[in-house]
Request: fold
Amino acid sequence: MIVSRAVPTEAIFQRGRILTLSNALSFLRLLLAFYLYSLIAQRRVEEALIWIALAIFSDFADGFLARRLNQISELGKILDPLADKLCIGLCSVALYFHFGLPLWVVVVLIGRDILIVLGALVMMRSTHVVAPSQMAGKIAVTVMSALLLSYLLELRSLQVPLQVLTVVAIVFSALQYGQRFYRQVIKTERI
Reply:
C-alpha cells in the first residue's frame, strides 16, 4: 500500500502535473457522474452498469497510471476523490427518486462527503497542505458503491445488510478522518 504525504497547497497546479493521463481520467469521471444520473433516472440499468464499470475501472486506473508513469500530482489527489464523491452523490439521489433508496441513506452519504470536503478545506487553509485520501475512506466508498448497486439491480436481500455495513464503514472512516483532522489542525493551532 502506498501512503501519500500531505504537501503544500501551492503544488496543486504544479507545472507539468496538470495535464496528465491520470488527471484526465479523474476529470472524465467527474463528467460521467452527470451521465450516470441521467441513465439511472431513465431506468436504463444495463447502460448504467456498463458506465459504472468504466467509472470503477477509471478510478483504479488513474491511480495506477499516476504511479506507473510518475505522474502523481496534487491536483490528482483532489480530482480523484472529488469524482468519487460526485458519482456517489448523484447516483444516490437518482436511486432515491427512481429505485427506492431511503432518504436517510442519501443524507448520510452526501453528508459524509460534505463533512470531508469542509474538513479538507479547513485543513488546507490552516496547514497549507493537501491531505491524501485514507484507506478507511476508500473502503467506505467501495461499500457505499455496493449498496448503491444493490438498489440499482433491485437485490432486496442485500440492501439492509449493506446499509448496516455502509454505516459501520462511514463511522470508522469518520473516526479516522476526525483523528487526522485533530492531529493536523487542532494540535497545530495550539502550538
About this structure: The first strand starts at residue 7 and ends at 8. The longest helix spans residues 156-190. Helices lie at 21-41, 45-68, 74-99, 103-127, 135-152, 156-190.
